[in-house]
Amino acid sequence: MSTTDRIEKSIVLKAPVARVWQALTDAHEFGTWFRVKLESAFVEGRRVAGQITHPGYEHVRFDVLVERIEPQRYFAYRWHPYAVDPKVDYSKEPTTRVEFTLESLGAGTRLVVVESGFDRIPAHRRDEALRMNSEGWAGQLRNVQRHVDG
Q1: pLDDT tens across 102-121, in order?
Q2: Sequence-separated (6 or more) residues with CB below 8 Å from residue 3
Q3: Do 66 and 42 meet the contact criterion of CB atoms below 8 Å apart?
Q4: In CATH, what number does 6-149 get?
């Protein structure tokens, strides 16, 4: 796997695993920190969609396929990375996998997010998708931190 294929970010949170897990997998809580209004719960094997509410991206639909849920430890979904142009149909493109892994650190939690599969994204938009999602995950981890450490 090349270094252009994946993003990996981590953060240590003051909150216990159970609290972080709830923030990641409860659709309402996820929507609060991620800035998306989800239409249904996260269920393994099912699609979850909603409207992004982040200023400047309100035209973007959040649409993921939940791949795996291992309670209190691991949550993964697939999506089309940086699919923000309303004139483009991204549905024929390969997806990337987003993985959240939680590790208990006593009273706190290490949260790792990995997004992989960028090497399969069409070359004309791969670099921008990787760059924008790398910046995006850094910001989203800060959002999670504010949400659970509050």
Answers
A1: 999 989 999 999 999 999 99
A2: none
A3: yes
A4: 3.30.530.20
Q: What is the SS3 assignment for 115? A: strand
What tokens does 69 get?
């849920």
**Residue 84: both structure tokens together:** 């923000």
Q: Where are the domains of the chain?
A: 6-149
Tell me how many degrees the CA angle 105-107-108 measures, rounded to the nearest 5: 55
Cβ contact 6:23 at 8 Å: no
Q: Which segments of 19-126 are extended strands (E)?
A: 36-38, 47-52, 61-70, 74-79, 96-105, 108-116
Cα–Cα distances (Å) from 57 to 34, 42, 74, 110, 149, in that order, read: 12, 22, 27, 29, 26
Residue % of the chain over a pLDDT of 70: 98
